[in-house]
Amino acid sequence: MPESVRERLIRAGSATVANMLLRRGLRNTVMAGVVPLAAGAPPMAGPARTLRFIPAREDLDTLAGYASSENLHRRAIEECPPGAVLVIDAFGSTAAASMGDMMAARLRYRGVAGVVTDGGYRDAEAIRATGLPCHHRGNAPKATPIALHPVALDEPVGCGGVAVYPGDVLLGDEDGVVVIPRELAAEVAEEAADAAAYEEFAALEIARGRSLFGLFPATPESRREYDQWVARGRPGRK
Amino acid sequence: MPESVRERLIRAGSATVANMLLRRGLRNTVMAGVVPLAAGAPPMAGPARTLRFIPAREDLDTLAGYASSENLHRRAIEECPPGAVLVIDAFGSTAAASMGDMMAARLRYRGVAGVVTDGGYRDAEAIRATGLPCHHRGNAPKATPIALHPVALDEPVGCGGVAVYPGDVLLGDEDGVVVIPRELAAEVAEEAADAAAYEEFAALEIARGRSLFGLFPATPESRREYDQWVARGRPGRK
Amino acid sequence: MPESVRERLIRAGSATVANMLLRRGLRNTVMAGVVPLAAGAPPMAGPARTLRFIPAREDLDTLAGYASSENLHRRAIEECPPGAVLVIDAFGSTAAASMGDMMAARLRYRGVAGVVTDGGYRDAEAIRATGLPCHHRGNAPKATPIALHPVALDEPVGCGGVAVYPGDVLLGDEDGVVVIPRELAAEVAEEAADAAAYEEFAALEIARGRSLFGLFPATPESRREYDQWVARGRPGRK
Amino acid sequence: MPESVRERLIRAGSATVANMLLRRGLRNTVMAGVVPLAAGAPPMAGPARTLRFIPAREDLDTLAGYASSENLHRRAIEECPPGAVLVIDAFGSTAAASMGDMMAARLRYRGVAGVVTDGGYRDAEAIRATGLPCHHRGNAPKATPIALHPVALDEPVGCGGVAVYPGDVLLGDEDGVVVIPRELAAEVAEEAADAAAYEEFAALEIARGRSLFGLFPATPESRREYDQWVARGRPGRK
Amino acid sequence: MPESVRERLIRAGSATVANMLLRRGLRNTVMAGVVPLAAGAPPMAGPARTLRFIPAREDLDTLAGYASSENLHRRAIEECPPGAVLVIDAFGSTAAASMGDMMAARLRYRGVAGVVTDGGYRDAEAIRATGLPCHHRGNAPKATPIALHPVALDEPVGCGGVAVYPGDVLLGDEDGVVVIPRELAAEVAEEAADAAAYEEFAALEIARGRSLFGLFPATPESRREYDQWVARGRPGRK
Amino acid sequence: MPESVRERLIRAGSATVANMLLRRGLRNTVMAGVVPLAAGAPPMAGPARTLRFIPAREDLDTLAGYASSENLHRRAIEECPPGAVLVIDAFGSTAAASMGDMMAARLRYRGVAGVVTDGGYRDAEAIRATGLPCHHRGNAPKATPIALHPVALDEPVGCGGVAVYPGDVLLGDEDGVVVIPRELAAEVAEEAADAAAYEEFAALEIARGRSLFGLFPATPESRREYDQWVARGRPGRK
């Protein structure tokens, strides 16, 4: 993913990007119930690599077997490319951890952009300390093999009620995680950056006491005022 | 699946079969929240064939596209072998239907043993009229493409919080749906049939006023009494 | 509402009607979690009259005050026109009853078409005995003033997550309750009746062993076959 | 409990009895989410005997240990007096069964009035066949020791969010289960029977087309009419 | 609302105020599941102005139509008086935002005391930055018209399971949001301030090692000690 | 509980301790949905003393009666030994507070190690200020007698879905609360401390870019490397 696309997405933010997707008729692009692990953590943006879990079975998912070199959970950690976002379909279950602090540290070292699950993590404190951007549904302290079995990498999955196809672009920040169909990423990034820039203008106007009517959402007249403000060098911008 | 295995499983019932799996250390074999569509419907038993859904996306899941001959949802209906149980992983969502009455009628005609989903069905009334044994979580009246996208056949899936591997044997009746690992089906069927036969004996004893203590669960002494009762030709059995 | 419209809607059924609304871009027209009170009860169809509840307050909602002639709950029962469907917005709460058996008997006598709430009823047994078609979320045995306060009649409300504007047409049957915007009722009824008639044809074909592909959903060719079947007098129809 | 009290309670029904308790300031006497196992089953009324469960632990709750003669679960079945209602506090958990069909048959034989749990039962079909009145939250097919450990008999417990003190009178029917503080049972039974008798009169009036206003809830005038109707021998009563 | 009333309420805190309402028989005055948006934000107190949402409909709630000058959502923002608390009935739905950062900035500028919804907000980060006191149920990042339709201003509504009548006084702080019937606000403020003052005394006593018995809740003797402590000039008070 | 045991448990952390219990076949030792009240609060470890609540009843649980010297809720606060953890079974209910700030201050003064409930607390702000380590499910601002009745001390209870027997050792930190059967505490503490020490080594290796495979989980080879690292004086350790 080009750095310019990444930059624009992060600056626009997940809520604005979701609005751009809504304009294209996509109404279900923000993961439900998925929140950042750490308040104030940096945002994440990157193409998705997926890992799918199904429920565990006591004979197939033992602590011993979890150590095998074939284990898909740990292969996901070792193979997710730098700059990508690892998306874990845990079918919403916090009955066991989708990831722990050792895995988070390894992902951080390897340059992965972030992790998202609709399950949860263990060792939340230690994971925050790695600085890796993470989103999840809630705490899941039990060891993974108690309830989760890794079954496949790089399939289309669901996560937080949203479809994620490998290569789709994920943007995660304080407001949540939005999934952008891969072929739309560049144009959506550009449009969202424009919308965010307009919102900077609108925020300044509101701070001066202007009413929302005729300002936000934009009207043709307010777009013209915005263009003039841009032409003047965006005065007042932080 | 041999008819003798099928017969024993059905006579034993899902609750007893689950007990046999518990003895083998498998504690999570009964689907959560999954109930029969019709009270009094015949039970189902057969090897699993799976269909996996993920959330829909408005551009990929249109009513028009749903009519395509490649559509995996309808391929599942057309390709599920006679005697098998179609297991649909709808990740617990009743936001749209996993199946409707036309599909149920087609499955019935093709000799499929039954359908299980952790989502729901539409046209419940008409589906009951087909006589096809079905289990689901609850009513799901909206058209499938509103919320569900079929992504793969014959993968390991989760359904109602239980792992289902293709070929695992499903038994569904009034008490729910239990999943039997494929390699255990024959021995579990035999053990469950024996446990169910013992329960017939125990029920007769209870009807005569006998206490549960020393009778149920069985003790070595009560097992001997049972053997004698069998030797006598199972007197009193309905 | 013309009798022809009512008849067509009932024959088509709520699931088919919901499909027609989906074609018009309306994806959220079926009430969530709302089920018939009685299995096998007759369906209901009619224009909506609404009653809105908010949470009760102990000083405003006493058993004594509940007897007042101004009480909006009982005015709703006395004023709902014959042939209309009374829609009760109980904000999903089953903490107290939206209706009891006396009210149901009175509505039945007055010729009201049915009642829908996203709360629940008390005296379920006695209500069934009146024969009044009813839908609700689940049993709510406590007296209304314990948790519910009637605040207005004939406002736009929400019920089961769907918007209901006074005059919208409600159709409720075994599959649930669908809300049809008032101005669309006649054309949707006609379209749904046609779709239901096509489904009769398709069901006969499936019973003869025909595959779903090329039959359901319909294709231009299968629609031509259907036209021929109609021309021949719909042979085989029950 | 005197037969006259039992008879009045059953005839009045749980919803009316709950109204009588509301008049005494008791607003939380009906168990939440607890429903009859069998539609159309006879009602139950009797003094409560309690059994309290806590979560199971794998080392303490084995299938083998479950067979012990000390097991409190089975002692509850063997010691609950005839005419009492066995109340099982399963802290709302349907993760395992509060009771199965063998236990139900034994309770039935022993003349226990009924069973209530805020968990669930297994072998629902077979339990219905015993004719024992039962209420529960929902199906719970797994064996008890998987998730439940019996810890005490005859303690004050919670069940379905309502306090149950040993000796409190439980009334369970189609509308749910209401808990009557033991010292109030006789007077509440009498008041409820009177309220129910008034409701018979009101139902007849409604069937003749009379409005709810001035009839239900009762007014001093309508009570006088009722007295006259009683004096005339309750004409029209079924 | 007089400044003295506001001051007392804020100092007493929502939990203490709820206790005072409980003494008056009002048991349901604290909104369920409603939490502050920002930890450490200043509290809010003021008379309620209400906005009621119902579910959206795709033909009535478009992004374009959202820009109309009649839109009740934005009228609520422009018309809520300074010092008032805007109460938004979103029927508990976080499917779309009850408010975003532009609206929050505008409300802040206009001197509104705070916002409460039983839905959620988008742009949480930016809203916190405005300093406007806000409470909500949880994050709701999707654009309002996706799921919410504003239907009326200044009606009685429900919010978080509590009735809110226009003019009722809302107090929101770290512990939640309590709703005070308008006619009770002054006397409750005074009583709560007294209770809070007593709690300061009790806290000092506990810090010196005194037992709760005979101190908290207060007894006649401990009230006399408190009076003496007040007479002595409240020594030890921070 | 010996200080050495306490120290080891705290250093290992609840997630690692839960792993040690899993090795012994105990899969359900971490309380579900129970979180620390304050981010960054110190951890707690100590033997459990229990308090069991059942639902309140308006005639038994009055504000006046709550002041009685016999009240078990306040006896729990006064009698819980220093160094113990008070475990409150509130059957998951946040309808009223399990504890408030006065009680927390008293417990802190008395040297109790911490409090855990599967209900919630009121006065969260003030409780945090006491510095007492607390865990709960969520905010519960209403006064205790509104919904909770204290029925017994020092019984076996459930809390957050886990069995707690008096004397079991509780460890609570950022990751949650784990319950250690009393007879296992010493050996589990030792094993967990060893596992935590190994994790320090593994974390250093990961920071140097080493793969998870062959490192975490441990293998016999990596354990030998660990032994050498210990022998060398644990170089690099913070």
From TrEMBL, chains A, B, C, D, E, F:
Cofactors (names): a divalent metal cation; Mg(2+)
GO molecular function: 4-hydroxy-4-methyl-2-oxoglutarate aldolase activity; metal ion binding; methyltransferase activity; oxaloacetate decarboxylase activity
Matches recorded under InterPro entries: RraA/RraA-like, RraA/RraA-like_sf
Keywords: Magnesium, Metal-binding, Methyltransferase, Transferase
Enzyme Commission number, as recorded: 4.1.1.112, 4.1.3.17
Top enzyme category: lyase
Catalytic function, reaction form: oxaloacetate + H(+) = pyruvate + CO2; 4-hydroxy-4-methyl-2-oxoglutarate = 2 pyruvate
Binding site for substrate: G100, D101, M102, M103, R122, D123
Protein name: Putative 4-hydroxy-4-methyl-2-oxoglutarate aldolase
Species whose genome carries this gene: Streptomyces tagetis
